[in-house]
Amino acid sequence: AAVHYYDFVLEETNFTKLCSTKSILTVNGSFPGPEIRVHAGDTAFVTIHNNGTYGVTIHWHGVRQPRNPWSDGPENVTQCPIPPGTSFTQEIIFTAEEGTLWWHAHSDWTRATVHGPIIILPKTGTTYPFAEPDAEQTIVLGEWYKGDVMAIIDEALASGGDPNVSDAFTVNGQPGDLYGCSNATTFRMMVDYGKTYLLRVINAIMNEEMFFGIANHTLKVVGMDAAYLKPIEVPYVMITPGQTMDILVTANQPRSHYYMEASPFADTSAPFDNTSTTAVFQYQGGYTPPSKPYFPSLPAYNNKTAVGNFTKLLRSLASKAHPVSVPLNITHRIFMTVSVNQIACANASCAGPNGNRLSASLNNISFVTPTIDILEAYYSGIPNVFNKTFPDVPPYLFNFTGDVGSNTLFPSRGTEVKVIEYGAAVEIIWQGTNIGAAENHPMHLHGYSFYVVGMGDGNFDNKTSPSTYNLVDPPEVNTIGLPKNGWTTMRFVADNPGVWFMHCHLERHASWGMDTVIISSECYLEGDKASNANIRNAATQELELALLD
Ligand code: C2O
Ligand code: CU
Question: How far apart are CA 222 and CA 127, in angstroms?
Fold first, then answer.
């Protein structure tokens, strides 16, 4: 296995888009940033040189990093921000992941401009589980904000309301023909008739899940989150922030210009950017181009059924070379509500609903990011940084997806983490709620890929829901869209010691507290056992029984 070295220079760079020029934080002056390209089993060392003006960290999204949380990156979870004027080297250990992942800044909202692809080719000496494509193209879906993204989130948190939305979506940094001043720079993918292309699609957008398609062309999805899928042929995909998809497209249509388009899926009452970004899938010469390229027909922005139908198709390849190993006998089960809430506002003129401010929570705890990183605090025993009190069930039972008044539950705030014993077979049932605004949440876990064994609408029901589980070939991912007012069950084996962040990958929800930390520990202490047991034995036990047994 090879070792690769990269230098990432964080620096302010000027770009002109949407008719105006502004400076953004970039890596090596490019937007999106540079690609990391390795084979499965390789290691990369990336030295980050922070030539910017504030502290930043970088995360390798979806790389499992066995026993290496030290290089994982989320700010104040596994490390302090890298101060301006300094360098920091991270070691990225690639094991079984094959396909596409990405890296991004993991400090406030810096990831809006600081992100790039990670391409993981099959282990040296092996091939793709599909015919070698003729060529490949990375498609990074991103956004352009005319304002400063750091100011946008600061304003939202200070006022207690929703953050501003972006001014354009982008394909490989370009907004495309449908936006002002953008025609000349539209991204064009030049193709030859008859060839097959591997598209590596990354959703690096802050707050919107996206539909993506190419006019007249069938998408054959063969991988997701760097794990292979049974090929699915579809006219469009839905890809959430955090997710990556490997898609084969054969240029088999009459030579012409076809739009590649991405438009939001946003079944929400929150404000969102309801525009589309386009690039051109353009056959090489010898014809007169149409005056306007053809458009794909993507579902409407609120078409939840289209999302459900697509998600249902995802199955692991489950071949001899790429087997699945879904844990069957669960030893640690967590039932976790995922909510947008409100909490009381300090400030009288608060912009949130009902004079409150917007907040978000897991099991009704709105996560507070500490100022000392949790990894260091855990391994060097620094007290009072976090509590090992994240509960296995929510504080009370209610009709999660029913008509819950927005004041039903105000979350508590705290840095509460879950310690899980090494080797545990873990099941997490994420339950969406209708507390504030119900919405689809792309739930993400660091340090692991997990199997999505079940998903459904409404409240999880322990009598009927488990009988629908797919334990044979469930997709193995690092991010999955928990359906609006629905539930999702995922499983993994806690065999990667470390401190691992878990959060919604919609940045506004993560900023409001829809996060927690899983510590998978090899030195599972008596104290950890006691705190887990206490949580289970206290008032919540009855509830746990009602929900899970
Ligand atoms: Cu892309 Cu903490 O995640
Ligand atoms: Cu969310």
Answer: 14
pLDDT tens-digit map of 517-542: 999 988 777 778 777 776 655 545 55
β-partners of residue 102 are: 61, 117
Intrachain domains 1-126 and 128-322 with the same fold = yes
DSSP string, 14-45: EEEETTEEEEEEEETTBSS---EEEETT-EEE
How many helices (H) and strands (E) are present in the chain, helices listed first?
6, 32
Distance 206 CA to ligand 1 centre (A): 11
Does any ligand 1 atom lie closer than 6 A to the CB of residue 501? yes
What is 332-548's CATH number? 2.60.40.420
Instruction: Tell me what ipTM this predicted complex has.
Output: 0.99
Whether 418 is in the pocket of ligand 1, judged by its Cβ within 6 Å, is: no
Q: What is the CATH number of domain 1-126?
A: 2.60.40.420
Atom of ligand 1 nearest to the CA of 61: 1
Antiparallel, parallel or unpaired: β 498-504 and 441-445: antiparallel
Nearest CA to ligand 1 atom 3: 61
State whether the beta carbon of 333 lies less than 6 angstroms from ligand 1.
Answer: no
Give percent of the chain with pLDDT exceeding 70: 96
Is the CB of residue 74 below 6 angstroms from any atom belonging to ligand 1? Answer: yes
**Residues 231, 221 contacting (CB under 8 angstroms):** yes
Determine the Cα angle at 522 with ends 520 and 523, to 5°.
Answer: 110
pTM reported for the whole predicted model: 0.96
Strand partners, 426: 332, 492
